[in-house]
Design goal:
Order of helices and strands: EHEHEHEHEEHEEEHEHEHEEH
Shape: globular
CATH superfamily of the largest domain: HAD superfamily/HAD-like
InterPro entries: HAD-like_sf (IPR036412), HAD-SF_hydro_IIA (IPR006357), HAD_sf (IPR023214)
Largest sheet: 6 strands, parallel
Strand content: 15-25%
Organism: Campylobacter ornithocola
Strand order of the largest sheet: 3-2-1-11-12-13
Number of domains: 2
Keywords: Hydrolase
GO molecular function, one term: phosphatase activity
Structural class: alpha/beta
Pfam family, one: Hydrolase_like
Length: about 250
């Protein structure tokens, strides 16, 4: 069974189009009835699954999960402070959360390429006042317009270095998120466990290391955030592919 990342793995970081071989892989998995789950740290579009379907990916809600899908399991709708792109803030409000930067029950952090130091100062103030801290995921870096930006994991590490505190992670690579992905398979009467799962992603630190520690097999694709294995501990990788097309060819051709 497979866990499949999206950004940089199935779709291009450059123009969001399907990476060569990605559509064919999903069609083949469906045809051969090979269990898989699409696991993404998307924190912008509530309708991201529909977006992928419009790109001709033949996937449905039974095999798709992102942090929005499980957020309410960790934090019921309440007053929150949220930091991220406007799409993220809009999506949270659509889910029933109320933005309140004066008296929030928790503060949430998502990927964003326009953070200000005033934002970080506000986060530190919340931490000092024992406001619950939530990282929507823990990606190390992300790619936009051919440039690399620090991901939420890196932002939280910076804050933790400034003022020690604990925080909850909703998406990858948290164990809870990966267990939720397994549960999607179990709901289909599939005997799923981490040891039988191969995860394919372009994020070595943000996705694969956590998966490796849970006993999953790991496959790194060099089509997204990183283009080489230089500086990586490749002993934590079972497979390395230039792109998802290489995996598709090795599996189905």
């Amino acid at each position: 069974m497979l866990f499949l990342d999206v950004q940089g793995t199935l779709i291009s970081d450059y123009d969001k189009s399907p990476i060569d071989g990605a559509l064919e892989l999903i069609r083949s998995l469906n045809k051969e009835k090979i269990p898989y789950v699409i696991i993404t740290n998307n924190t912008k579009k509530l309708d991201f699954l529909n977006y992928l379907q419009n790109l001709d990916f033949e996937i449905n809600e039974k095999v798709y999960i992102d942090p929005f899908c499980v957020l309410k399991d960790h934090l019921k709708p309440c007053k929150i402070a949220a930091f991220g792109a406007k799409e993220f803030l809009d999506s949270l409000q659509e889910l029933g959360y109320e933005l309140d930067y004066k008296n929030p029950k928790a503060f949430l952090v998502a990927s964003y390429d326009d953070f200000k130091f005033q934002d970080f100062a506000s986060m530190i103030e919340y931490v000092k006042n024992d406001i619950q801290a939530i990282a929507m995921h823990e990606s190390s870096i992300y790619k936009k317009s051919s440039r690399l930006y620090p991901g939420v994991g890196s932002i939280m590490a910076m804050l933790k270095n400034a003022y020690d505190f604990d925080y909850k992670v909703i998406g990858k690579p948290s164990k809870a998120f990966y267990e939720s992905a397994l549960n999607l398979l179990k709901q289909q009467d599939i005997n799923a466990n981490f040891e039988k799962t191969l995860i394919i992603s372009d994020d070595f630190k943000g996705d694969l290391l956590g998966a490796y520690e849970l006993g999953m097999q790991t496959a790194l694709v060099l089509s997204g955030k990183i283009s080489s294995t230089q500086g990586l501990d490749i002993t934590k990788l079972n497979f390395i592919y230039d792109s998802i097309k290489d995996y598709y060819i090795s599996r189905f051709k």
